[in-house]
Amino acid sequence: MSLSDLESEKGDADGLLSEDLVQSPTHKAASTKAVDFDGLLTPPLLLREDLTSGNGGQAWPAGMILGKYLLRRKRDELQDSSIVELGAGGGLCGLAIAVGCRPKDVVHITDQQPMQALMQQNIAHNNLQDAVKASVYDWGNPRPQDIPQPDVVLAADCVYFEPAFPLLLQTLQDLIGPNTVCYFCFKRRRRADMHFVKAVKKMFLVEDVTDDPDSASYSWENIFLCTIKRKPGR
Ligand SMILES: C[S@@+](CC[C@H](N)C(=O)[O-])C[C@H]1O[C@@H](n2cnc3c(N)ncnc32)[C@H](O)[C@@H]1O
After folding, report:
1. Is 178 in contact with 208 (CB distance < 8 Å)?
2. Residue 18 has pLDDT above 50, yes or no
3. Nearest CA-CA partner of 99 in 174, 43, 181
4. CA pair distance 42, 32, nearest whole angstrom
5. 220 labelled binding-site residue
6. Of 45, 151, 191, 211, which is most buried with the most CB atoms under 10 A?
7. Which of 227, 69, 73 has the alpha carbon at shortest distance from 151?
8. For this UniProt entry, which residues form the secretion signal (predicted)?
9. Residue 176's domain is classified under what CATH number?
């Protein structure tokens, strides 16, 4: 199912489709695991997961899907791109790209203040101090001075809290320049998530990613992967 199909889909009531994020498993003990994106990442990423400071402290399915897609299809493009990840949590996608693509520019992984320590730990675990920088970037706030206008924006599982939708939209407007592509992967949990999709489509050119061989399987889980770009002439 594509994003367009999803928009016209009827049937689900306005309520919750899934509470997996709302009721995150806060009792899960902190641990470190090796993530190799089904063999696409050598060496694997060492990812510390710790939910003490928020639900971004674990790898979410949309982050795994986005990371795998980028490693499979976009290595060359990413090598030459300046990259900013939004709502990075522990830094899953940005760190994976730093290990797998070795971009020429520093990769900026960003999130709110409570996630900074975990991002720093994961940078250190993987010896990426020279390749990745963690920063506080609260959606809706001006772009921090050390964050460049990027060629590529990464955002995985950032659509889940309705009051944050306009803030995220504002940040996409601030970051997506005429030559920027945002790789955006999200899980639709509530019908309200489509309000965000509609608002993004009004403002940007949104296209389904069509070259991911895994897409049929994750669309069954209501996970969608698309690109977001500036509309021509804007
Ligand atoms: C579900 S987690 C996804 C984490 C990671 N991208 C992944 O896929 O594993 C959503 C992330 O968005 C971040 N976030 C939520 N609201 C935010 C805001 N207003 N500004 C910046 N980050 C925010 C959270 O802190 C959290 O780390």
Report:
1. no
2. no
3. 43
4. 17
5. no
6. 45
7. 227
8. none
9. 3.40.50.150
With a CB cutoff of 8 Å and minimum separation 6, the contacts of 5 are none
**How far is ligand 1, taken at its centre, from the CA of residue 233, in Å?**
31
pLDDT at residue 4, as a whole number: 65
Residue with tokens 């003490």: 52
Report the domain count for the chain: 1
pLDDT surpasses 80 at 20: no
Q: Is 183 inside any structural domain?
A: yes
Task: Tokens for 37, please give them.
Answer: 């994106």
Gap from CA of 77 to ligand 1 centroid (Å): 25
* Domain-embedded: residue 17: no
Domain that residue 81 falls in: 46-230
Angle of CA points 223, 228, 232, to nearest 5°: 150
Amino acid of residue 140? G
Bridge partners (DSSP) of residue 199 are none
Q: Is the Cβ–Cβ distance between 87 and 111 less than 8 Å?
A: yes
